Amino acid sequence: MSDINKVVLAYSGGLDTSVIVRWLQETYQCEVVTFTADLGQGEEVEPARAKAEALGVKEIFIEDLREEFVSEYVFPMFRANTIYEGEYLLGTSIARPLIAKRLVEIAEETGADAISHGATGKGNDQVRFELGAYALNPAVRVIAPWREWDLTSRDTLLTYCEQREIPVEQKRGKKSPYSMDANLLHISYEGAVLEDPWTEPEEDMWRWSVSPEIAPDQAEEIVLGFKKGDPVSINDQAMSPASLLAELNTIGGRHGVGRLDIVENRYVGMKSRGCYETPGGTIMLKAHRALESITLDREVAHFKDSLIAKYADLVYNGYWWSPERKMMQSAIDESQKEVNGEVRLKLYKGSVAVTGRRSDQSLFDQTIATFEDDAGAYNQEDAEGFIKLNALRLKTAAKKGRSLRE
Fold first, then answer.
1. Model pLDDT for residues 316-367, shown as the tens digit of each residue
2. Helix/strand/coil (H, E, C) string of 143-159?
3. Largest CB tally within 10 Å, which of 48, 106, 279, 314?
4. Is 16 an annotated catalytic residue?
Protein backbone atom coordinates (compact mmCIF):
# COMPACT_ATOMS: atom_id res chain seq x y z
CA MET A 1 0.00 0.00 0.00
CA SER A 2 2.98 2.32 0.43
CA ASP A 3 3.15 3.00 -3.31
CA ILE A 4 -0.31 4.64 -3.26
CA ASN A 5 0.33 8.32 -2.59
CA LYS A 6 -2.73 9.93 -4.15
CA VAL A 7 -6.21 8.63 -5.01
CA VAL A 8 -9.04 10.27 -6.99
CA LEU A 9 -12.42 9.43 -5.43
CA ALA A 10 -15.84 9.73 -7.06
CA TYR A 11 -17.36 11.78 -4.24
CA SER A 12 -21.02 12.59 -3.60
CA GLY A 13 -20.64 14.16 -0.20
CA GLY A 14 -22.93 11.58 1.36
CA LEU A 15 -22.29 9.17 4.20
CA ASP A 16 -20.60 6.40 2.22
CA THR A 17 -18.12 8.52 0.30
CA SER A 18 -17.33 10.71 3.32
CA VAL A 19 -16.34 7.56 5.20
CA ILE A 20 -14.32 6.44 2.18
CA VAL A 21 -12.27 9.67 2.21
CA ARG A 22 -11.13 9.07 5.80
CA TRP A 23 -10.75 5.32 5.25
CA LEU A 24 -8.44 5.92 2.28
CA GLN A 25 -6.42 8.44 4.27
CA GLU A 26 -5.99 6.01 7.15
CA THR A 27 -5.67 2.71 5.30
CA TYR A 28 -3.42 3.85 2.44
CA GLN A 29 -1.81 6.83 4.18
CA CYS A 30 -2.50 8.76 0.99
CA GLU A 31 -3.78 12.09 -0.24
CA VAL A 32 -7.36 12.03 -1.54
CA VAL A 33 -8.64 14.06 -4.49
CA THR A 34 -12.43 14.31 -4.76
CA PHE A 35 -14.45 14.49 -7.96
CA THR A 36 -18.15 15.42 -7.86
CA ALA A 37 -20.17 15.44 -11.09
CA ASP A 38 -23.37 17.38 -11.68
CA LEU A 39 -25.34 15.17 -14.07
CA GLY A 40 -28.66 16.80 -13.30
CA GLN A 41 -29.44 14.81 -10.18
CA GLY A 42 -31.52 17.68 -8.86
CA GLU A 43 -29.45 18.35 -5.76
CA GLU A 44 -26.82 21.01 -5.15
CA VAL A 45 -23.32 19.63 -5.66
CA GLU A 46 -21.40 22.63 -4.34
CA PRO A 47 -21.92 21.66 -0.65
CA ALA A 48 -19.65 18.70 -1.38
CA ARG A 49 -16.76 21.17 -1.46
CA ALA A 50 -17.14 22.20 2.16
CA LYS A 51 -17.56 18.59 3.26
CA ALA A 52 -14.41 17.55 1.40
CA GLU A 53 -12.45 20.47 2.87
CA ALA A 54 -13.57 19.46 6.37
CA LEU A 55 -12.03 16.05 5.71
CA GLY A 56 -8.71 17.61 4.77
CA VAL A 57 -9.03 17.31 0.99
CA LYS A 58 -6.87 19.86 -0.85
CA GLU A 59 -7.74 19.14 -4.49
CA ILE A 60 -11.49 19.24 -5.14
CA PHE A 61 -13.12 18.89 -8.56
CA ILE A 62 -16.80 19.83 -8.92
CA GLU A 63 -17.96 19.84 -12.54
CA ASP A 64 -21.19 20.58 -14.39
CA LEU A 65 -21.32 17.77 -16.97
CA ARG A 66 -25.01 17.96 -17.84
CA GLU A 67 -24.62 19.02 -21.47
CA GLU A 68 -21.84 16.53 -22.14
CA PHE A 69 -23.82 13.78 -20.45
CA VAL A 70 -26.89 14.26 -22.62
CA SER A 71 -25.22 15.09 -25.94
CA GLU A 72 -22.38 12.52 -25.83
CA TYR A 73 -23.97 9.65 -23.91
CA VAL A 74 -27.77 9.84 -23.63
CA PHE A 75 -28.45 10.96 -27.22
CA PRO A 76 -26.13 8.39 -28.89
CA MET A 77 -27.82 5.67 -26.83
CA PHE A 78 -31.28 6.85 -27.86
CA ARG A 79 -30.30 6.89 -31.53
CA ALA A 80 -30.10 3.13 -31.09
CA ASN A 81 -33.56 2.99 -29.41
CA THR A 82 -31.76 1.23 -26.59
CA ILE A 83 -33.85 -0.60 -24.03
CA TYR A 84 -32.64 -3.35 -21.67
CA GLU A 85 -34.71 -6.52 -21.27
CA GLY A 86 -37.57 -4.88 -23.13
CA GLU A 87 -38.26 -2.17 -20.53
CA TYR A 88 -35.34 -0.39 -18.83
CA LEU A 89 -34.06 2.84 -20.41
CA LEU A 90 -30.64 2.51 -18.73
CA GLY A 91 -30.61 5.78 -16.82
CA THR A 92 -28.02 4.72 -14.24
CA SER A 93 -25.93 2.65 -16.64
CA ILE A 94 -25.31 5.43 -19.16
CA ALA A 95 -23.96 7.84 -16.52
CA ARG A 96 -21.13 5.56 -15.44
CA PRO A 97 -18.83 5.77 -18.50
CA LEU A 98 -18.67 9.57 -18.23
CA ILE A 99 -17.79 9.41 -14.53
CA ALA A 100 -15.16 6.75 -15.26
CA LYS A 101 -13.66 8.92 -17.99
CA ARG A 102 -13.33 11.95 -15.73
CA LEU A 103 -11.89 9.86 -12.90
CA VAL A 104 -9.14 8.65 -15.21
CA GLU A 105 -8.53 12.11 -16.66
CA ILE A 106 -8.34 13.77 -13.25
CA ALA A 107 -5.97 11.05 -12.04
CA GLU A 108 -3.70 11.83 -14.97
CA GLU A 109 -3.99 15.61 -14.41
CA THR A 110 -3.16 15.39 -10.71
CA GLY A 111 -0.55 12.63 -10.88
CA ALA A 112 -2.66 10.26 -8.80
CA ASP A 113 -1.72 6.60 -8.43
CA ALA A 114 -5.26 5.20 -8.31
CA ILE A 115 -8.96 5.94 -8.53
CA SER A 116 -11.71 4.90 -6.12
CA HIS A 117 -15.49 4.63 -6.02
CA GLY A 118 -18.27 3.86 -3.54
CA ALA A 119 -20.01 1.08 -5.46
CA THR A 120 -20.69 -2.08 -3.49
CA GLY A 121 -19.47 -5.56 -4.34
CA LYS A 122 -23.03 -6.70 -5.08
CA GLY A 123 -23.98 -4.25 -7.80
CA ASN A 124 -23.37 -3.46 -11.43
CA ASP A 125 -21.74 -0.07 -10.91
CA GLN A 126 -18.42 -1.48 -9.73
CA VAL A 127 -18.18 -3.32 -13.04
CA ARG A 128 -19.16 -0.27 -15.09
CA PHE A 129 -16.72 2.08 -13.37
CA GLU A 130 -13.81 -0.31 -13.53
CA LEU A 131 -14.30 -1.67 -17.04
CA GLY A 132 -14.51 1.90 -18.27
CA ALA A 133 -11.40 2.94 -16.38
CA TYR A 134 -9.34 0.00 -17.61
CA ALA A 135 -10.43 0.58 -21.19
CA LEU A 136 -9.29 4.20 -21.03
CA ASN A 137 -6.12 3.59 -19.04
CA PRO A 138 -5.01 -0.04 -18.80
CA ALA A 139 -2.44 0.88 -16.14
CA VAL A 140 -4.94 2.51 -13.78
CA ARG A 141 -5.26 1.11 -10.28
CA VAL A 142 -8.70 0.87 -8.66
CA ILE A 143 -9.51 0.85 -4.97
CA ALA A 144 -13.01 -0.40 -4.12
CA PRO A 145 -13.46 0.01 -0.34
CA TRP A 146 -16.68 -2.01 -0.15
CA ARG A 147 -14.69 -5.04 -1.30
CA GLU A 148 -11.96 -4.46 1.28
CA TRP A 149 -13.31 -3.05 4.53
CA ASP A 150 -15.44 -4.61 7.27
CA LEU A 151 -17.99 -1.79 7.41
CA THR A 152 -21.09 -3.67 6.32
CA SER A 153 -24.06 -1.50 7.31
CA ARG A 154 -25.25 2.05 7.80
CA ASP A 155 -24.89 1.64 11.56
CA THR A 156 -21.23 0.64 11.27
CA LEU A 157 -20.61 3.60 8.96
CA LEU A 158 -22.21 5.98 11.46
CA THR A 159 -20.14 4.50 14.29
CA TYR A 160 -17.02 5.01 12.18
CA CYS A 161 -17.98 8.66 11.69
CA GLU A 162 -18.66 9.18 15.38
CA GLN A 163 -15.32 7.67 16.41
CA ARG A 164 -13.41 9.91 13.98
CA GLU A 165 -15.55 13.02 14.38
CA ILE A 166 -16.60 13.01 10.73
CA PRO A 167 -19.54 15.41 10.34
CA VAL A 168 -22.64 13.64 9.02
CA GLU A 169 -25.62 15.66 7.90
CA GLN A 170 -28.73 14.46 9.73
CA LYS A 171 -31.67 15.53 7.58
CA ARG A 172 -34.82 16.52 9.38
CA GLY A 173 -38.15 14.94 8.57
CA LYS A 174 -38.85 11.61 6.98
CA LYS A 175 -35.81 10.05 5.34
CA SER A 176 -36.31 7.99 2.21
CA PRO A 177 -35.76 4.29 2.94
CA TYR A 178 -34.77 3.63 -0.67
CA SER A 179 -31.40 3.52 -2.35
CA MET A 180 -31.76 6.16 -5.07
CA ASP A 181 -29.75 7.35 -8.02
CA ALA A 182 -30.70 10.33 -10.16
CA ASN A 183 -29.48 12.21 -13.20
CA LEU A 184 -31.11 14.10 -16.06
CA LEU A 185 -32.33 10.88 -17.65
CA HIS A 186 -33.96 9.18 -14.67
CA ILE A 187 -34.30 8.53 -10.98
CA SER A 188 -34.12 4.98 -9.61
CA TYR A 189 -35.33 3.33 -6.41
CA GLU A 190 -34.12 0.08 -4.85
CA GLY A 191 -34.22 -1.60 -1.45
CA ALA A 192 -36.65 -1.40 1.49
CA VAL A 193 -40.11 -2.81 0.63
CA LEU A 194 -39.09 -3.12 -3.04
CA GLU A 195 -36.98 -6.14 -2.15
CA ASP A 196 -40.24 -8.12 -2.18
CA PRO A 197 -41.29 -8.27 -5.86
CA TRP A 198 -44.94 -8.72 -4.81
CA THR A 199 -45.10 -5.51 -2.76
CA GLU A 200 -46.52 -2.52 -4.59
CA PRO A 201 -44.39 0.66 -4.42
CA GLU A 202 -45.72 3.31 -2.07
CA GLU A 203 -47.17 6.28 -3.91
CA ASP A 204 -45.09 8.77 -1.94
CA MET A 205 -41.91 7.07 -3.19
CA TRP A 206 -42.16 8.67 -6.63
CA ARG A 207 -40.40 12.03 -6.91
CA TRP A 208 -40.65 13.16 -10.55
CA SER A 209 -44.14 12.20 -11.68
CA VAL A 210 -47.71 12.40 -10.48
CA SER A 211 -49.81 9.27 -10.32
CA PRO A 212 -51.55 8.68 -13.67
CA GLU A 213 -54.83 8.47 -11.76
CA ILE A 214 -54.57 12.10 -10.64
CA ALA A 215 -52.82 13.46 -13.73
CA PRO A 216 -54.68 16.22 -15.62
CA ASP A 217 -57.90 15.20 -17.33
CA GLN A 218 -56.90 17.32 -20.32
CA ALA A 219 -54.33 15.80 -22.69
CA GLU A 220 -51.30 17.88 -23.73
CA GLU A 221 -49.84 17.87 -27.23
CA ILE A 222 -46.23 18.68 -27.98
CA VAL A 223 -44.15 18.67 -31.15
CA LEU A 224 -40.62 17.31 -30.89
CA GLY A 225 -38.15 18.33 -33.61
CA PHE A 226 -35.23 16.09 -34.61
CA LYS A 227 -31.97 16.54 -36.50
CA LYS A 228 -29.86 13.49 -37.39
CA GLY A 229 -31.73 11.40 -34.85
CA ASP A 230 -31.36 13.78 -31.90
CA PRO A 231 -34.17 15.92 -30.47
CA VAL A 232 -33.38 19.61 -30.91
CA SER A 233 -36.63 21.49 -30.23
CA ILE A 234 -39.94 21.40 -28.36
CA ASN A 235 -42.85 23.20 -30.00
CA ASP A 236 -40.44 24.91 -32.43
CA GLN A 237 -38.28 26.24 -29.60
CA ALA A 238 -34.65 25.21 -30.09
CA MET A 239 -33.02 23.99 -26.90
CA SER A 240 -29.67 22.60 -25.76
CA PRO A 241 -29.58 18.82 -25.12
CA ALA A 242 -29.65 19.13 -21.32
CA SER A 243 -32.32 21.85 -21.31
CA LEU A 244 -34.50 19.85 -23.70
CA LEU A 245 -34.34 16.68 -21.62
CA ALA A 246 -35.05 18.62 -18.41
CA GLU A 247 -38.12 20.20 -20.02
CA LEU A 248 -39.39 16.84 -21.27
CA ASN A 249 -39.01 15.50 -17.73
CA THR A 250 -41.19 18.31 -16.44
CA ILE A 251 -43.82 17.88 -19.14
CA GLY A 252 -43.91 14.10 -18.86
CA GLY A 253 -43.86 14.14 -15.08
CA ARG A 254 -46.99 16.22 -14.77
CA HIS A 255 -48.86 13.67 -16.90
CA GLY A 256 -47.58 10.61 -15.00
CA VAL A 257 -45.40 9.45 -17.89
CA GLY A 258 -42.36 7.21 -17.49
CA ARG A 259 -42.92 5.11 -14.35
CA LEU A 260 -41.50 1.61 -14.42
CA ASP A 261 -41.41 -1.30 -11.96
CA ILE A 262 -39.23 -4.22 -13.08
CA VAL A 263 -37.13 -7.16 -11.97
CA GLU A 264 -33.90 -7.09 -13.95
CA ASN A 265 -30.95 -9.43 -14.33
CA ARG A 266 -27.79 -7.85 -12.98
CA TYR A 267 -24.50 -8.58 -14.72
CA VAL A 268 -23.07 -9.93 -11.46
CA GLY A 269 -25.60 -12.76 -11.49
CA MET A 270 -28.52 -11.86 -9.25
CA LYS A 271 -32.01 -10.61 -9.99
CA SER A 272 -32.89 -7.19 -8.66
CA ARG A 273 -36.19 -5.35 -8.37
CA GLY A 274 -36.05 -1.65 -9.17
CA CYS A 275 -38.44 1.20 -9.88
CA TYR A 276 -37.62 4.00 -12.29
CA GLU A 277 -38.97 7.33 -13.45
CA THR A 278 -37.85 8.29 -16.95
CA PRO A 279 -40.46 10.75 -18.25
CA GLY A 280 -38.33 12.60 -20.80
CA GLY A 281 -36.65 9.45 -22.06
CA THR A 282 -39.99 7.71 -22.53
CA ILE A 283 -41.20 10.58 -24.70
CA MET A 284 -37.96 10.71 -26.69
CA LEU A 285 -37.99 7.00 -27.46
CA LYS A 286 -41.59 7.07 -28.69
CA ALA A 287 -40.96 10.10 -30.88
CA HIS A 288 -37.67 8.82 -32.30
CA ARG A 289 -39.15 5.51 -33.39
CA ALA A 290 -42.07 7.33 -34.99
CA LEU A 291 -39.74 9.53 -37.05
CA GLU A 292 -37.61 6.54 -38.05
CA SER A 293 -40.76 4.80 -39.29
CA ILE A 294 -40.99 7.27 -42.19
CA THR A 295 -37.31 8.07 -42.78
CA LEU A 296 -35.50 4.71 -42.57
CA ASP A 297 -35.37 2.09 -45.30
CA ARG A 298 -37.15 -1.11 -44.24
CA GLU A 299 -34.06 -3.32 -44.14
CA VAL A 300 -31.99 -0.64 -42.40
CA ALA A 301 -34.72 -0.28 -39.77
CA HIS A 302 -35.00 -4.02 -39.23
CA PHE A 303 -31.23 -4.52 -39.06
CA LYS A 304 -30.95 -1.64 -36.61
CA ASP A 305 -33.66 -3.18 -34.43
CA SER A 306 -31.72 -6.43 -34.36
CA LEU A 307 -28.86 -4.57 -32.63
CA ILE A 308 -30.95 -3.20 -29.74
CA ALA A 309 -30.53 -6.11 -27.33
CA LYS A 310 -26.78 -6.37 -27.88
CA TYR A 311 -26.27 -2.61 -27.63
CA ALA A 312 -28.33 -2.52 -24.42
CA ASP A 313 -26.30 -5.36 -22.91
CA LEU A 314 -23.08 -3.47 -23.64
CA VAL A 315 -24.33 -0.33 -21.92
CA TYR A 316 -25.87 -2.17 -18.96
CA ASN A 317 -22.82 -4.35 -18.40
CA GLY A 318 -20.28 -1.53 -18.59
CA TYR A 319 -18.82 -1.91 -22.08
CA TRP A 320 -19.48 1.62 -23.34
CA TRP A 321 -15.80 2.05 -24.18
CA SER A 322 -15.51 -1.32 -25.91
CA PRO A 323 -14.58 -1.59 -29.62
CA GLU A 324 -17.79 -3.45 -30.41
CA ARG A 325 -19.98 -0.66 -28.97
CA LYS A 326 -18.03 1.95 -30.94
CA MET A 327 -18.38 -0.13 -34.11
CA MET A 328 -22.13 -0.46 -33.59
CA GLN A 329 -22.38 3.26 -32.87
CA SER A 330 -20.79 4.09 -36.20
CA ALA A 331 -23.40 2.03 -38.05
CA ILE A 332 -26.24 3.47 -35.99
CA ASP A 333 -25.08 7.05 -36.50
CA GLU A 334 -24.82 6.45 -40.25
CA SER A 335 -28.48 5.42 -40.25
CA GLN A 336 -29.49 8.67 -38.56
CA LYS A 337 -28.38 11.12 -41.27
CA GLU A 338 -31.89 11.29 -42.73
CA VAL A 339 -33.77 11.10 -39.42
CA ASN A 340 -34.82 14.74 -39.53
CA GLY A 341 -38.28 16.16 -38.98
CA GLU A 342 -41.02 16.53 -36.42
CA VAL A 343 -43.23 14.25 -34.35
CA ARG A 344 -46.45 15.33 -32.65
CA LEU A 345 -47.30 13.51 -29.41
CA LYS A 346 -50.22 13.49 -27.01
CA LEU A 347 -49.55 12.96 -23.30
CA TYR A 348 -52.42 11.72 -21.16
CA LYS A 349 -52.52 9.99 -17.77
CA GLY A 350 -49.28 8.03 -18.09
CA SER A 351 -49.48 7.38 -21.83
CA VAL A 352 -47.59 8.81 -24.80
CA ALA A 353 -49.35 8.56 -28.17
CA VAL A 354 -47.95 9.62 -31.53
CA THR A 355 -50.49 11.69 -33.46
CA GLY A 356 -48.33 12.80 -36.39
CA ARG A 357 -44.92 12.62 -38.00
CA ARG A 358 -43.40 14.50 -40.94
CA SER A 359 -40.02 14.89 -42.62
CA ASP A 360 -38.53 16.27 -45.81
CA GLN A 361 -36.65 12.95 -46.01
CA SER A 362 -39.78 10.84 -45.60
CA LEU A 363 -39.92 7.61 -47.63
CA PHE A 364 -43.68 7.38 -47.19
CA ASP A 365 -45.28 7.72 -50.65
CA GLN A 366 -48.99 8.41 -50.43
CA THR A 367 -49.50 7.73 -54.14
CA ILE A 368 -48.38 4.12 -53.58
CA ALA A 369 -49.87 3.51 -50.12
CA THR A 370 -53.32 4.88 -50.87
CA PHE A 371 -56.41 2.66 -50.87
CA GLU A 372 -57.84 4.93 -53.52
CA ASP A 373 -56.92 4.92 -57.22
CA ASP A 374 -53.13 5.05 -57.41
CA ALA A 375 -53.08 5.90 -61.13
CA GLY A 376 -50.89 2.93 -61.95
CA ALA A 377 -48.20 3.63 -59.33
CA TYR A 378 -48.50 0.04 -58.08
CA ASN A 379 -49.42 -2.98 -60.19
CA GLN A 380 -51.36 -5.30 -57.92
CA GLU A 381 -50.95 -8.19 -60.35
CA ASP A 382 -47.22 -8.23 -59.54
CA ALA A 383 -48.08 -9.52 -56.06
CA GLU A 384 -49.06 -12.94 -57.42
CA GLY A 385 -45.57 -13.78 -58.65
CA PHE A 386 -44.04 -12.34 -55.50
CA ILE A 387 -46.16 -14.63 -53.32
CA LYS A 388 -45.49 -17.73 -55.42
CA LEU A 389 -41.72 -17.21 -55.33
CA ASN A 390 -41.74 -16.76 -51.58
CA ALA A 391 -43.97 -19.82 -51.14
CA LEU A 392 -41.70 -22.05 -53.24
CA ARG A 393 -39.64 -23.45 -50.36
CA LEU A 394 -42.75 -24.00 -48.24
CA LYS A 395 -44.49 -25.90 -51.05
CA THR A 396 -41.36 -27.97 -51.71
CA ALA A 397 -41.12 -29.02 -48.06
CA ALA A 398 -44.81 -29.92 -47.97
CA LYS A 399 -44.46 -32.09 -51.09
CA LYS A 400 -41.62 -33.98 -49.39
CA GLY A 401 -43.89 -34.79 -46.48
CA ARG A 402 -42.33 -32.27 -44.07
CA SER A 403 -45.64 -31.11 -42.65
CA LEU A 404 -45.61 -28.04 -40.43
CA ARG A 405 -49.10 -28.66 -39.04
CA GLU A 406 -47.83 -30.20 -35.81
1. 999 999 999 999 999 999 999 999 999 999 999 999 999 999 999 999 988 7
2. ECHHHCCCCCCHHHHHH
3. 279
4. yes
